[in-house]
């Protein structure tokens, strides 16, 4: 049973992954350590630029990248989008891709590493609690609304994969966000609790006990236990039961790997994750809502569930990218283009 629970924890961690653009990049060859195809390699006058920034959030140093549109003028007012990254992801991967692509459409954008993750501060490392991830989104809004050129009345939110679920939660109460969009939304709490596609309902109590024991061990000064940390062979990857597992592993460990990105999270985080659900109180979202997902994504059920429950807004749209899986919506050029086209039209209308 213990091995089954550990395996389940790894699977639950793995499905929080996401993807980026085709043509993997080597972080060592990019001055900003960006790993997506078409990433900026230098700042040039008159073009889209990237500005690494650091700010404080609840006493922690948060590492972020701000993208500014071509011919950016600090004296002007620009629509702005906050971009929340996937579980296990960092700002240099898919979140950076979408932030850059939106900047190319005339938006100021920001994407930050979550607290306790990536290049941001916080100990122990890889804590993954919903309250922290939601606070990260509020914190990005705090920072970017003070940035020169940002029109605070035209602030939008984009959440990708796990960041999509947390964006739904953040937008319920943070009305600074005038509109909200998600790409391949992943309801972290539901999956950590029930398993992917609700496949682990029989081990909920055992996994809760395991998380409780891990918390007790931490409190006693013992070793911090982690879930989701694994190193699979190609053969093992091929046998993983869902496309999201297989393609997510390929993306995060091979084609778009970044040293700050990791599958693992503290086992004790499950105490918070397993009682969270991105759709709780979702009717509080009154702002325009756009949800994008691949038509062949095995995670589509989470987007469709959240969309149906989002009854508080009269302006909502579900767009399915024909033929795309969860991971492919982040790296296949035609699917990324399709998502960006929808996002651009949505933000142009709502911001």
How does this structure look, described?
This protein has 351 residues and is of the alpha/beta class. It has helices at residues 2-14, 94-103, 130-144, 162-173, 188-194, 204-219, 234-238, 243-255, 270-273, 300-309, 333-350; strands at 49-57, 60-68, 78-84, 108-112, 150-160, 179-183, 226-227, 265-266, 289-294, 316-321. Helix 3 (130-144) packs across helix 4. It starts with a helix and ends with a helix. The model is unreliable at 1-23 (pLDDT under 50).
Please give the structural blueprint.
Elements (H helix, E strand, L loop, with lengths): L1 H13 L34 E9 L2 E9 L9 E7 L9 H10 L4 E5 L17 H15 L5 E11 L1 H12 L5 E5 L4 H7 L9 H16 L6 E2 L6 H5 L4 H13 L9 E2 L3 H4 L15 E6 L5 H10 L6 E6 L11 H18 L1
Parallel strand pairs: 3-4, 3-5, 5-6, 6-9, 9-10
Antiparallel strand pairs: 1-2, 2-4, 7-8
